[in-house]
Amino acid sequence: MRYVNLAGTRVPTIGQGTWYMGEDPGSKAAEVAALQQGINLGLSLIDTAEMYAEGGAEQVVGQAIAGRRDQVFLVSKVYPHNASRRGLPTACERSLKRLGTECIDLYLLHWRGQHPLEETVEAFERLIEQGKIRRWGVSNFDLDDLQELDNPACATNQVLYNPAERGIEFDLLPWSRQQQLPTMAYCPLAQAGRLLHHPVLAEIAARHAATPAQVSLAWVTRGEGVIAIPKAVSPAHVRLNAAAQDLVLTEADLQAIDLAFAAPTRKQRLAMM
Ligand SMILES: NC(=O)c1ccc[n+]([C@@H]2O[C@H](COP(=O)([O-])OP(=O)(O)OC[C@H]3O[C@@H](n4cnc5c(N)ncnc54)[C@H](OP(=O)(O)O)[C@@H]3O)[C@@H](O)[C@H]2O)c1
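Structure for Aldo/keto reductase, as requested:
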């Protein structure tokens, strides 16, 4: 297993996402079981947000981690419209209740909104003082946003990254590495769309007796300081995602991916979902 130092904690390079969980009551048991299976297999970082199913995903996570909170590194995100001096503490309180915990390990601003960054940061810092969160970070921040934020206390930036979305490699990722700011890569499987049927990923997968999804995860986490957070409900997917931590791509594999999905040669606007 490979690890990244995130907010002072050693976390595995592959975690678990939760977008679309908590939407259908009929699927809740399977979602809880998938997250628990993931924790058992070492996928101990769980990423959620108040936005997902309007709190429903946090409730699924709460159920999955009940009685084993200490085995999990918990990440949640606040809506930008709640990221004010008064709104942030109440949003956090609601999240804590749904998650059934007293403290969120890493609390992120989901994307930039209308509230001044200094006000959000001040509110995050107060939550740390009160023991409601351990650290704070951001999501969907491009390089200029991070430079404007200019705050070494920021513990991560969570952004879209997979072989078909390599824009961050031009400037954001190298800068983040230089600042020792870990990157959390969301949609590392491009939401299981066309990417997973790409013949080049299929060919590489066949060479390693792996799957295209595992190749995508190994590729996303190939460098320093990147954590991938695939979401999986199917037990087979959870197993494959955990096993992807052992897949190491060769130079030839990486070159083949570069040929199929060119690295950026100029600045691209940060892609978002
Ligand atoms: N900060 C942000 O703005 C932001 C935006 C988007 C996402 N996120 C976070 O990032 C997480 C991941 O992104 P995402 O959920 O949008 O997309 P994703 O993880 O790229 O893809 C999820 C899809 O891939 C399937 N899948 C999982 N493992 C697989 C495997 N080994 N083989 C084949 N298919 C597999 C899942 O199916 P099953 O579920 O059926 O197993 C699901 O349909 C989210 O859940 C969320 O926590 C953050």
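The longest strand covers residues 133-139.
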